[in-house]
Amino acid sequence: MAQYPTMFDPSSLVRKGFCPVHSSSTGTPAFETHSLYYEQHGTGDKRVLLINGLNTNSFGWDFQVRSLAPMCSVLVFDNRGCGYSGYPTGRYTTSGMAEDIIVLLEYIGWTASCQLHVVGVSLGGMIAQELALRISDRIASLTLCVTTPGGMPWQNFPPLQGVKFLTSLLLTKEPEEKVPTVLKMLYPASWLDETAMDDERQRSNREVQSELYLRRVLFSPKQRIIGHVSQLVAALTHHVSPDRLRRISQTVPKVVILCGDQDFLVDLRHSRDLKASMPEAEFVQWESTGHGIHSQRPTEFHELLVRIFNDAGAVN
């Protein structure tokens, strides 16, 4: 596995590798369609699954893995069409990507009842909804961050500014040239200009996030255009009906919907739509916060997750 470098702290690593994903037609032998790259960090009793957003790999969870690994078992992975994972042929859907995760969980033996804490951001939150519909009995808590229940494709498009950002990124080749667009897409401009907390060099958030983005690029294989487009199609065609959302909120012990008030990719109303269909869920909205919610406010995000995990334990 030396040819697959990782950004995560090797001292917390328990295992990493590739999970084969198979498909078969009726009456024909199963064949491998692709594989999922995964890493487990920590050995705590609480099992945490972190699901990435659109066209991002698992290294975006670096802070949360470092902060959760001392107390939890944390599973991160690259979705199909991104990072070290494979690129299966055919249309990508959030339901199909959720099925990938079920295969991965069975592969590593995480199949116990009501022990899994699922955290999904953006596209990862859409996938998490489909996952919860399929294995709700295994899930202790579900955290849906800056995401949407979906609808018809034209209802799933980001706000106009977000469409412009995504189009620009699709047409830009060099990572260094992408940085300004990525930062404007994920974070409020006022926050980017502020001095970063706990930075010994007193740099701005813009400087710190630029460096982190480029560091992730160094550790990551370049995403192929087919993966970029296929994941986008999965997001645009996502839809979980109000009835199915209600079923999730009634069966998963602890559900939290988290959003920011300055999101250029997933309009705030979508989080409110989720809450309307999931009355048992807790709704959390952070001010002056963009789509990159877990990287803009990593400490607050970590503290929220710890509370959610503990609340779920109290419910159980």
TrEMBL record:
In this chain the AB hydrolase-1 domain maps to 47-297
Gene3D superfamilies given for it?
alpha/beta hydrolase
Q: Which domain of life is it from?
A: Eukaryota
Q: What PANTHER family does the annotation carry?
A: AB HYDROLASE-1 DOMAIN-CONTAINING PROTEIN, HYDROLASE, ALPHA/BETA FOLD FAMILY PROTEIN
Q: What is this protein called?
A: Alpha beta-hydrolase
What is the protein's species of origin? Mycena alexandri
